């Protein structure tokens, strides 16, 4: 009978505590929330942090118990900050402590910053399988970082499995005022943030589309529409925003206002529409993709989308290294070409009369497949796996990030020849109809241009540098070390100084007259002047042919030549 007496005494104590608590009504007016975190903690389990936003309405906090022995009684409380959280009106004993309502259970929500509860039943509570111990739903009424803390005073288990076995059974104190036998039970917690459906962002009217936040205040949604006329408005966190304009398939950034009442009209050609709404500036962008007229099917299945070029349909796909067999569907008709491609092709002819599939031997990466539906020409370019920016086409090269986050660069050997290439700017292939002969300090490419840049290389080492913000490509050949000599009656090779344009060298000459020319990388530079022992600066040109004359008195002579300005100075020392 020791156990029964103990449970009765606990129950009486609990009843006395609850009856002595003065009921205090606590209400908080709803405030504008900006978000924060809720740390869910307890004296019985590890803490976890949950984020909430201005669009979240409630958070439901749940604690779970699993114990090999059945439970006799429990007593504790949940503590919280009532400036941020408020116990929701939907909470009851049945919803908050569902496993305990079969016995004597009490819970008091009419307290400030806490809810106290207890339960006892000689018929025992069964948590031998994990069950909900206590769960409370809170309204989010404030902002900032806060916490919900479950602090249990008492949880008593028993070695009995039923009421009939209580006589002679032993109590097991799982929790008893600071003493916790954590090795005898498993306790855990979770939380579920519940969004406020009135604080969403959506398109409504003839178009019903929920928009999702991308993290920067721009809400986005995608929908397929058939050809037709649609009217709609914007729901921005429960407030209606309007613009009475008429759009044809897309808009680049129309301003909406909560004071306007006229709906927007979209005259749709039919296809895929992406709605992007900026809740900060109240601007709407609609992007449009026409229905696909061309597809790749087989081992590769890819819908090709229309581009700025009316005939070109294109799509992008990630492929692992391997061999892929495919054909083309052009406006419902199968087109084939029995070719084998190693990563790329810049224009393979296909025919509806052919039946053999094409094979792509892929090294792995991001592949862009384009098809000219009138010419029946297929192009494939790719960026290797791991490359964010790269050269594609006849030259495939991953560009590496630099200290400038907008600039990517890499160096490679290129044989003499003519190459067709584009730049993949994070998956968007940028083209240009320009022709570059060996080098360029900057040519602009564009993802809307379908033509390939023509690069005519004399051969050697080239550095490709691309600015992803301005879409500007630079191609710089590696220049060999400049060789500067004094030739003729004086034979002297000059050495580059700290100034990379200035070369210098020293020689000893006897008294006499010497004729000479300057030679830079095999090209003679001349000046027919006569130098009497020294000069501070003479201009030389490759067009001149007359040698210079140095009348030397004998001694040490230092020749200094600037290859940028083609100016020579001669210094003399005895």
Describe what this molecule looks like in 3D.
The chain has 5 domains: 2-196, Immunoglobulin-like (Sandwich); 200-289, Sandwich (Immunoglobulin-like); 294-384, Sandwich (Immunoglobulin-like), CATH 2.60.40.3620; 389-477, Immunoglobulin-like (Sandwich), CATH 2.60.40.3620; 484-573, Immunoglobulin-like, CATH 2.60.40.3620. It has 2 helices and 52 strands. The longest helix is centred in the first third of the chain and has 19 residues, at 2-20. Helix content is 4%, strand content 58%. The chain starts with a helix and ends with a strand. The protein is elongated. With 574 residues, the protein is mainly beta. Strands 13, 14, 15, 16, 17, 18, 19, 20, 21 and 22 form a 10-stranded mixed beta sheet that branches. Strands 23, 24, 25, 26, 27, 28, 29, 30, 31 and 32 form a 10-stranded mixed beta sheet that branches. Strands 33, 34, 35, 36, 37, 38, 39, 40, 41 and 42 form a 10-stranded mixed beta sheet that branches. The relative contact order is 0.07. Mean pLDDT is 89; it is low at 1-5 and 12-31. Strand 46 and strand 47 form a beta hairpin.
In short:
The chain is mainly beta and 574 residues long. It is built from 2 helices and 52 strands. The strands form 6 sheets. Strands 13, 14, 15, 16, 17, 18, 19, 20, 21 and 22 form a 10-stranded mixed β-sheet that branches.
Which SSEs are present, and which pair or pack?
Elements: H1 2-20, E1 35-42, E2 48-53, E3 56-67, E4 70-80, E5 85-87, H2 93-96, E6 104-108, E7 114-125, E8 131-140, E9 146-158, E10 171-176, E11 179-180, E12 185-195, E13 201-205, E14 209-213, E15 218-225, E16 228-236, E17 239-241, E18 246-248, E19 251-255, E20 264-268, E21 271-278, E22 283-289, E23 294-298, E24 302-306, E25 312-319, E26 322-330, E27 333-335, E28 340-342, E29 345-349, E30 358-362, E31 365-372, E32 377-384, E33 389-393, E34 397-401, E35 407-414, E36 417-425, E37 428-430, E38 435-437, E39 440-444, E40 453-457, E41 460-467, E42 472-477, E43 484-488, E44 492-496, E45 502-509, E46 512-520, E47 523-525, E48 530-532, E49 535-539, E50 548-552, E51 555-562, E52 567-573
Parallel strand pairs: 1-9, 18-20, 28-30, 38-40, 48-50
Antiparallel strand pairs: 1-2, 3-8, 3-12, 4-7, 4-9, 5-8, 6-7, 9-10, 10-11, 13-14, 13-16, 14-15, 15-21, 16-17, 16-20, 19-22, 21-22, 23-24, 23-26, 24-25, 25-31, 26-27, 26-30, 29-32, 31-32, 33-34, 33-36, 34-35, 35-41, 36-37, 36-40, 39-42, 41-42, 43-44, 43-46, 44-45, 45-51, 46-47, 46-50, 49-52, ...
């Amino acid at each position: 009978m020791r156990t029964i007496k103990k449970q009765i005494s606990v129950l009486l104590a609990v009843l006395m505590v609850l009856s002595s608590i003065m009921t205090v009504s606590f209400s908080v007016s709803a405030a504008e929330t900006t978000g924060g975190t809720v740390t869910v903690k307890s004296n019985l389990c590890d803490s976890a942090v949950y984020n909430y936003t201005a669009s979240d309405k409630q958070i439901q906090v749940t604690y779970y118990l699993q114990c090999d022995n059945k439970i006799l009684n429990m007593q504790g409380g949940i503590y919280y900050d009532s400036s941020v959280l408020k116990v929701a009106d939907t909470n009851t004993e049945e919803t908050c402590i569902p496993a305990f309502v079969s016995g004597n259970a009490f819970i008091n929500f009419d307290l400030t910053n806490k809810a106290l509860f207890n339960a006892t039943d000689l018929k025992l509570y069964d948590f031998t399988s994990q069950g909900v111990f206590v769960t409370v739903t809170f309204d989010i009424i404030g902002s900032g970082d806060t916490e919900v803390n479950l602090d249990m005073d008492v949880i008593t288990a028993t070695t009995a499995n039923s009421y009939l076995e209580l006589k002679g059974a032993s109590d097991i104190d799982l929790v008893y005022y600071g003493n916790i036998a954590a090795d005898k039970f498993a306790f855990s917690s979770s939380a579920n943030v519940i969004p406020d459906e009135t604080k969403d962002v959506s398109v409504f009217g003839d178009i019903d589309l929920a928009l999702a936040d991308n993290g920067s205040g721009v809400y986005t949604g995608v929908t397929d529409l058939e050809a037709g006329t649609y009217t709609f408005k914007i729901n921005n966190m429960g407030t209606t925003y309007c613009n009475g304009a008429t759009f044809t398939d897309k808009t680049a950034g129309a301003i909406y206002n909560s004071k306007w009442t006229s709906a927007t009209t979209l005259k749709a050609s039919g296809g895929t529409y992406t709605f992007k709404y900026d809740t900060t500036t109240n601007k709407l962008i609609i992007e449009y993709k026409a229905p696909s007229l061309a597809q790749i099917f087989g081992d590769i299945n890819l819908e090709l989308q229309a581009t700025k070029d009316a005939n070109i349909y294109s799509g992008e796909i990630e492929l692992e290294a391997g061999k892929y067999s495919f054909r083309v569907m052009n406006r419902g008709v199968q087109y084939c070409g029995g070719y084998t491609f190693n990563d790329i092709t810049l224009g393979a002819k296909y025919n509806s009369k052919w039946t053999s599939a094409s094979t792509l031997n892929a090294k792995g990466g991001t592949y862009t497949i384009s098809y000219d539906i009138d010419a029946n020409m297929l192009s494939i370019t790719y960026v290797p796996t791991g490359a964010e920016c790269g050269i594609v086409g006849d030259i495939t090269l991953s560009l590496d990030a630099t200290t400038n986050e907008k600039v990517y660069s890499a160096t490679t050997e290129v044989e003499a020849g003519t190459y067709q290439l584009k730049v993949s700017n994070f998956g968007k292939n940028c083209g240009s109809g320009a022709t570059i002969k060996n080098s360029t300090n900057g040519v602009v490419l564009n993802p809307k241009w379908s033509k390939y840049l023509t690069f005519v290389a004399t051969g050697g080492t080239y550095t490709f540098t691309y600015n992803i913000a301005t879409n500007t490509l630079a191609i710089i050949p590696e220049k060999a070390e400049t060789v500067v000599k004094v030739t003729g009656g004086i034979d002297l090779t000059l050495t580059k100084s700290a100034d990379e344009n200035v070369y210098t060298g020293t020689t000893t000459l006897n008294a006499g007259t010497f004729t000479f020319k300057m030679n830079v990388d095999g090209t003679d530079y001349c000046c027919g002047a006569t130098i009497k022992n020294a000069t501070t600066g003479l201009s030389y040109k490759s067009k001149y042919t007359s040698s210079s004359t140095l009348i030397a008195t004998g001694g040490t002579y230092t020749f200094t030549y600037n290859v940028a300005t083609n100016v020579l100075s001669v210094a003399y020392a005895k």
